[in-house]
Write a structure and sequence with these properties.
By secondary structure, this protein is of the alpha/beta class. Helix content is 29%, strand content 18%. It is built from 8 helices and 14 strands. The chain has helices spanning 51-64, 80-83, 86-93, 123-128, 194-199, 215-228, 246-255, 287-314; strands at 10-14, 17-22, 25-31, 41-44, 72-74, 97-99, 142-144, 157-161, 170-174, 179-181, 232-234, 241-242, 271-273, 276-279. Helix 6 (215-228) packs antiparallel against helix 7 (246-255). 46% of the residues are buried.
Length: 315
Amino acid sequence: MNPSTDSANANEFRSGVVRVAVVFVNTYLVDINPGVPADGWVLIDTGLRGLGGIEIRRAAAERYGAKSRPRAVVLTHGHFDHAGSALALASEWNAPVFAHPLELPYLTGQSHYPPPDPTVGGALAMLSRAFPQGGSDLSGHVQALAADGAIPLLPGWRAVHTPGHSAGHVSLWRESDATLIAGDALATMNQESWMSTLTMARQLRQPPAPMTTDWDAARESLRRLADLGPTAIAAGHGLPMAGPGMTDALRAFADTFAPPATGRYVRQPARFDERGIVEIPPPVADPVGNMLRVAAGSALIAAVMFTLTRRHRRI
């Protein structure tokens, strides 16, 4: 392991695979030739807008050199926390960006993502009320991955279509050492718990629930990944997990996987095609959101009244 990439925000957890943490989401630097940084690298996901670029540039400079740039960028999907810095980095590096064809509408400005679902409950759901809904416009930079999953400039890896969290979500698989970069097909921490969000205790968990719009597809994607037999799993959220029991653990998780008890997309998924959203189910009751809106409105009224009172006293 290269000590320069074994820090709080970047660590090489598998040969030639460096996890770079960007606040609450992970990106990955992947050697083209594992363990030989001088042969170049590919970036997997780009993290949050602005912050992702800062952390990725820092980790890349430490591992590959100050003026290094990736041969390509691969996006597991286009949500704001995974593709937020894609445009800035692709423009700066003049690097091609690759994504699944069904993800392209949200990466070319053609379609927005479906609204987040805060009614699934939990810490992440509470925060999702403030999540941006739009995608990115990477026109001129982004192109479709091949149907066979081959990843340009990254031999030994292939993209596996794992829809559910998004229509064109992909996970990345290296068969030579059974390494899986799962993106948001699953998480390795409990994002429904405020405490686990802080401790990041390792455990296999459902994909980020508020942004998952087809739970049946998410279940089938987990089974597809379990069939690969990974011994190391890195996800978009949480710390990597590895060990001889990893394959059995993922199989058991996939076999017992169940969606949240309630939620907008739980009983009726959103539907998509190559143009983007085709149909989304109607909103469901959101009493917590209503209370928050009432509280925000009351706070605004109180602030206005306070300001008017102060002005009146000065007259």
